[in-house]
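Question thread 4412

I'm putting together a teaching handout and wanted feedback from people who do this every day. The idea is simple: show students a protein as raw sequence, then show them the structure tokens that encode its fold, then repeat with a second protein so they can compare. Below is the first pair exactly as I plan to print it.
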Amino acid sequence: MSENSYNVGDLVAEFLARIGVTTCFGIVSVHNIPMLDGIGRRNAIRYVMARNEMGGAHMADAYARVSGHLGVMFSSTGPGAANTVPGLVEAGFAGSPVLHITGQTLTRFIDRDMGTVHDVPGQTAMLAAVCKAALRVRSAEEALGVLTRAATLALTPPMGPVSVEVPIDIQRTVIARPAQLDSLVLPIPPAPPPDAAALDEAVEILSRARRPMLWLGNGAKAAGAEAMRLLDLGFAAVSSWNGRGIVPEDHPMTLGGLHGNGAPLVQEFYKSVDAMLVVGSRLRGHETQDFSMPLPATRIHVDVNPAANGRTYSSTVFVTGDAALTMAALADRLRGRMAVEPGFAADFQAMKQRAVAAFTEGLGPYAEFPRLLREALPRDALWVRDITISNSSWGNRIFPVYGPRDAVHPVSAAIGPGLPMGIGAAMAAGGRKTIAMVGDGGFALNQTELWTAVQERAELVVMIMNDRGYGVIKHIQGALQDGRFFYGDLVSSDFQKLAAVAGLPSWRVASAAELGPTVAKAVATSGPSLIEVDMTAIGAFPPYAPFNRMGIWAKQAAE
């Protein structure tokens, strides 16, 4: 490429490759053509062509979660940028490092409400409202600096999505290739060590604990080895739903995602815990019954973000610092000082067995699904799921997860991201199989992305839990609306015919006994495939906590 032809679009493409980006997602459009032209001509980055911007943003989010690297998504400006918002919102909830690069109208027209193509006055403010930051390139000369700042912000804990607008005239501006690209390193600050005084307090409390527990969240995903050191000292563990697999969930001293919400035996056990160490978790309302779930009175909270202190639950001690560095320091200083009660481990394991059995019993005809599915999948398979009734019950809580980046779900509790998240996860999986469990209602929101999976030959099994409606909503309506089930019944696709149109192998499961063999077939099939689980044939899914104790469900249980 001659110096006379190098433009800002080329700079964007080369910048991404220089910082280690190998996969991007998005849609080509009139206001991003120069940037995508730069990517295409270099052929150094795989560009996954989503069917809509929302799906592309969800793909970038899941890619970031599974890979542990930057997820990158391109959109057009205006309506295209607006359509990324649901995915950016989810990335923000999940703390995913996502770089959203969008075009913009010609610089002289921006924010002037002149009716130019794709112009949305106030777009930057819209993106800033759902991102960690929203930046705009205002000249060709500052493009590299703005891009560097954006990627650095996204990857600096607490991580999150960052948007960059690059006006179309700036994208086409011919520039001299910046020599800085040859030695570019993002200036990501080092992990902050724990605050010394707070660490001292935490050590004193934990050294006296006889029945200590560890609550692990998303911020501890890179600290599995350090968490295991604390378990070796006698701690038990539990995870937020976005912190699953930090401790492999077949370890006898972890509850995984069965953290008490919907598990009264776990809540009862917490009464005997004399110190809980919370690391990298917000103790989200969705997981703590809107912060009403009783937790042990002595709570030590570790987070890289000082704003987390007292945001949900009060802290006896708050330690600002990196999860791995803090847990390593605690393990070093607690070695030889812990006096964990001799019967604590046995008590915990017995409680775990009872709690899992009790929860499983409440699943009705789906009681065997977690076991059958787990047995049919490789240990390293990726577990992606949408907000559907099966996930809101057993998928989040008792399906075992073995690695810190093996599970992806909508932390925002939105329906619809499951399929595109499955694609993004599969793109980051390095050949490992991904299964995405979605509901028929959620699947409908992004079902066009099925063709993205086909085009990319994604190693993805799409498992549709088909109850012909919004099952979660109906449980809520039964609990809170006296059983007035308005607007929750859906006419869905014939999923077998849909799979045939898309060129996918597909199967239909009409009984629990068919699940394991069918999933095994799908896993053994190269490329994407589809399984429809016919819930109307298997039976109604029982209402789950807390709704099972409310409204018509409580009345039915009493009868």
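The second pair follows. I'd like the answer to focus on this one:
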Amino acid sequence: MPTLKKKKGSKRRLTRKNRVRKIPHALFKKLKALSPFELNYQLIKMAGPNALNAGRGNPNFFNSFGRQVFANLQQTAISLSESRTNDIYEYPLHNEMNYPRALEKAARSWPRARGNFFAAYLTYLKKLCRQEKKDENAIMYDIVKSSLGCYYPVPPQIQPHLELVAQNFLYDLVMAAATGNEKGALMKPSDFTCFATEGAAAGILYVFNTLKENYLLLPKDKIAIITPIFSPYLEMPRLLDYDLEIVELKCDPNDDYALPDSEIDKLKDKKIKALFMVNPANPAAFSLSKKNIDRIGEIVDSERRDLIVLSDNVYAPFADQYNSFMISCPLNTIEVYSLSKYFGTTGWRLGLTMVAKNNRINDLLKNLPAKYKKKLQKRYKIATLSPDKLSFMDRLVFDSRQVAEAHVGGLSTPQQVLMGILLFYDIHDRSIGEPYRNKIKSILKERLKSFYNELNTEVAIRPTSTDYYSLINIPEVCSNIFGKDAAAYLVKNYEYLEFLFHLVSKYHTILLPGAGFGATDWRLRISLANLHDKDYPIIGKNIRKALKDLVKPVLK
């Protein structure tokens, strides 16, 4: 959350009759136990059809150009197939034509901007093919057949053309803050392997499941989670499927959500098997500091080489400064990424999971007790002749389809084609000064400022902040507007859900409780991405009105 400061010259106002309903304690306990997103559904019902719902993070912007290129490519792929009878087309064959030349020729007939972009994409892929000694014609053929969606995903992990782009995109993303001497920076994109998944949520679930299935996480094991955090990270470990003990590493809201050293030192406990976080955070909207990243990397190398690190970096493109665990401990880290927020593709479900090929999780698998290895041989023998030699990534892919269905598994091939186009769009955008990225950042920052301006509160923009969400400190805002006595009265006489419900029922405005994400009770999450610019000042005004209703007895 941005730093909050009281504006000078704020005045108290009279208010109307207080009509705030108290929530019975028993009901409050039930509501508090709900997932924030399940609670959101209840709030939507209460608010009515015309509510301002700033609780969800689905962006109201999306990348149109990449979709236009994808549409042209699909039509081209159909045209390159041979027509037999009416609506029946025959599959294109690998050696049927020179696919690079055919695609380049077709692109010249597209609208100029799209054609030029796709030609640049083909040139980029050719360069990567030469670097990685890949068959150029096979890669371009992969684009054609993947666009048509006429083959099973082969291999189910990721299509060959997409992996070339994904390796480089993710490497550039996670190493952006590297100075050049760190362990991660000394590696190259091809040292990593990627898995195309149905968004980041699927990637998270697949990782949890594979760690469980391979006895790397056992019931009652400890895992560390950096909070506040995207709520499923708190919810899934507690399910009976996993039954894990959570050790929270609590970020300091008064220090740009940095981790105190005392919290980081908890990782020295060898009973903690894994560390999970969203970085940059949801809902705190800050990337961890380089100092935090380096210190955790030092602990991993000196004392905890066995620690598994899972980092969700969905919001990385929104931060001016993103510090990744891949920089300091690349051999221990699993990165999960989604295109949902940055490109507005939540409905497409486009995600990636990346690990180093030579990762330490593979070493943990090799050192499993004999009884577990025997069980895993039975699990994977239907999928491979050498189950003992399966890497962590191979197991992740197999487990995502319950092993038996791995041969028909994988993300749909047209989705992977669109993903490749969008990833290259960002690569190209960065080469021309980041006009797309800068525009999105500007939109979010302006919404943030206009919102807090209505709350008599100034915001300090930080390089590590994404500004995609904000955790509103309601008592602090109340103090800024109506004074410290009013804030004290609010906290003493009401539960945070009573304020939230009053805001919904009377002012038809929906926020989400920060408590469900591991934040303190009186911090509420607002998404700066999912509504129009004009809506955010209105939300700020509605919060002000709702607070006046609650603190009327102490206003003069």
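Top answer:
Good format. For the second protein you could add a caption like this: Residues 1-18 have pLDDT under 50 and may be disordered. The CA atoms of residues 237 and 367 lie 24 Å apart.
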